[in-house]
Design goal:
The protein is of the alpha/beta class. The chain folds into two domains: 92 residues, Urease, subunit C, domain 1; 312 residues, Metal-dependent hydrolases (TIM Barrel), CATH 3.20.20.140. The chain has eleven helices and 19 strands.
């Protein structure tokens, strides 16, 4: 389909909301307006037509742990979830701390062709927190976001030097906020529930100390810092104050941190074990408030697939993480008291800017722009069935949940990759 028209939808992007058709030709939007015609039509009746979603936080597992996920299967899940671009986390084996590994992940993404895969780079060699990764070389190879996700950089002097070095590179430093000495052996949030169950707890302060530290280091150096998967009241408050001070900080929240609480661990089901852990109802309310007032810039899935035999272990042995790509839109629509333009901004426009791809993702939908588009029905309902998800893994905590919001079509660079809810590759 070199040329087609998306007809009958409500277009919502950063420029507003209107009833309009969208014509796509040669990979770009060629026209937008009422009553457009074309030889090939994609039906958007009753649907929202928006810029493609952008996920800042996805674990694709390749190279090294292909039994859990591959770039191909992860990108397919992303496209089915409405994402046209995803940032691939670097905790692969080997880690994405060299140009060779980054280029390989990028090539896999190009071959898969279901969304744009943006490899992130490590902050430190091997994510070991001891020596700075070759940030300059990786930035020159097109890496924009750097993180040791899964590990927080524990050494404040090293983190300061990384921030100082980053200033001339126009990159984003994304921190996994965890003071590891405070979380040794922890399997869930430290609170009433962990005490009642007799399980070692993960205190909120372990996250908040590092958020505070990196805010102050950003204040000192002027570096651009992005906080991954915020999960506590105080973390949100700290970021809100930092933004009020004009610091160059952004933040994201994962759907599971505004939909699930630590009470889910009463079942001892490791499906609910994540990093950082599920928190309390008060923390959930704070995350929702942060998304509502702009303190938190993006909804990011932290899509973390694991094979069944790993998740079926005891809590202390099972790895943290859960699937997120195909449920993010529905959970956002169902759980957040936000209107559609706000949700689209959190899933698309604002994360695209943080990822450095606002030139081609995140809208606005206008003539001449790259045709990266998501069409979804915000009212249609479906039930989460793990065996019908595209990931190689099945570790979703939402199995059996009835949700609303269905992605009908996803267009990547002018090519439909999802049509009528089915991946075309």
């Amino acid at each position: 389909m070199d040329e087609f028209v998306i007809k009958g939808g409500t277009v919502i992007d950063g420029s507003g909301e209107r009833i309009a058709d969208v014509t796509v030709s040669a990979g770009r939007i060629s026209a937008i307006g009422p009553n457009l015609s074309g030889s090939q039509v994609i039906d958007a009746s009753g649907c929202v037509v928006s810029p493609g979603f952008v996920d800042l936080h996805v674990h694709l597992r390749q190279p090294g742990r292909e039994e859990a996920e591959t770039v191909e299967t992860g990108s397919r899940a992303a496209a089915l979830g409405g994402f046209t671009a995803i940032v691939a986390m670097p905790n692969t084996e080997p880690a994405q701390d060299s140009v060779a590994v980054v280029e390989q992940v990028r090539r896999w993404g190009q071959d898969a062709g279901l969304c744009e895969v943006l490899p992130s780079g490590c902050l430190t060699i091997g994510r070991a927190g001891e020596r700075m990764a070759p940030l300059g070389e990786l930035a020159a190879a097109g890496v924009h976001l750097f993180t040791d996700d899964g590990n927080g950089v524990q050494d404040p002097l090293l983190m300061r030097r990384i921030m100082e070095y980053s200033l001339d590179l126009d990159i984003v430093l994304a921190q996994h906020c965890e003071v590891s000495r405070l979380t040794t052996g922890a399997v869930m949030h430290e609170g009433c529930c962990s005490s009642h169950l007799g399980l070692p707890g993960w205190p909120s302060i372990a996250e908040e100390l590092m958020v505070h530290r990196d805010i102050e280091l950003s204040r000192l150096t002027g570096a651009r810092v992005h906080f991954l998967h915020l999960s506590t009241v105080r973390s949100v408050d700290l970021v809100r104050a930092a933004k009020a001070d004009g610091l160059r900080v952004t933040a994201e929240a994962a759907p599971h941190h505004f939909t699930l609480s630590d009470e889910m661990l009463r079942t001892f089901d490791a499906t609910y074990k994540v990093n950082p852990p599920l928190r309390t109802a008060e923390d959930i309310a704070a995350i929702k408030a942060g998304l509502r007032d702009g303190t938190i810039d993006a909804i990011a899935t932290d899509h973390a697939p694991h094979p069944a035999h790993q998740k079926e272990q005891a809590l202390d042995a099972a790895p943290p993480g859960m699937l997120g790509l195909q449920t993010a839109l529905s959970l956002s629509l169902g759980e957040l008291d936000l209107d559609l333009p706000q949700i689209i901004a959190l899933l698309s426009t604002r994360p695209a800017a943080i990822a450095g791809v606002a030139d081609r993702h995140g809208g606005p939908l206008a003539p001449g722009r790259a045709a990266n588009i998501t069409v979804f029905d915000p009212h249609a309902s479906w039930t989460v069935e793990p065996d019908r998800l595209a990931s190689k893994s099945r570790n979703t905590p939402y199995a059996g949940r009835a949700v609303r919001g269905v992605v009908r079509h996803t267009v990547l660079n002018g090519v439909p990759v999802v049509r009528d809810g089915e991946a075309l590759r």
